[in-house]
Design goal:
This protein is an alpha/beta fold. It has two domains: 9-19 and 105-231, Rossmann fold (3-Layer(aba) Sandwich), CATH 3.40.50; 22-101, Putative phosphatase, domain 2 (DNA polymerase, domain 1), CATH 1.10.150. The protein has nine helices and six strands. A six-stranded parallel beta sheet has the order 3-2-1-4-5-6. The longest helix has 19 residues, at 42-60. Bound molecules: magnesium ion.
Length: 238
Amino acid sequence: MAGLPPFRGFLIDADNTIFDYDRAEREALAGALAKAGLEPTPAIHEAYRRINDGFWRAFERGAVTQDALKVERFRQLFAEEAPGCRADPAAVSRRYVELLAMQVHLLPHAASAITDLAGRAALGLATNGLPEVQRGRLERSGLGPCFRTVLISGEIGIAKPDPRFFLLGAERLGLSPSEVLCVGDVPATDIRGARAAGMASCWLAAPGAVWPPEEPGPDYTIRDLRALAALSPPRVFP
Ligand SMILES: [Mg+2]
């Protein structure tokens, strides 16, 4: 049974919930492609996203390791989009990961909303991704101290939407699952996973985003992280 507000804890997704991931990916990819002598055209960016998604799905099925994924996505990109390219996919991947870890573009109101919420409830960052990328960005954002725990799929070996990911998050917050609200922008991972864990869920809907009709709906929908204040206990002033 999903809980009711006020929630004593929040498990909050990182990419496109707190961080502008689309911009981070675009900028890091442009830098990595420059290393390969390639122009960052919209077509190559689109191909990268498609190939990268495919490798992450394969990773979630256990069909590829994280280390292989990092390199093979670039090998496939070059094979498809730049057959003459002689760049070493491993070197380009290293550069991409370095650059991505440095991209800290917070979404509007994210910093103030997270800082405020940390004074009301226990927060956990709950993200699918590479530890070196996500830890670097969290540190540089200055929001690290707001989170009591950080769950990164690449570190714990479980990825959203696996319900064990969310249950581990509640456990690490020292709360029962019914006391925690799971917040994120992706219906098929953030919301589906929270539901599978029997936890309450909150969809952060990007401008223009439409809920996919095949997915059971979230408990809450917000347009802006500041709305979480209304679902949390009153702020505690030390
Ligand atoms: Mg996200």
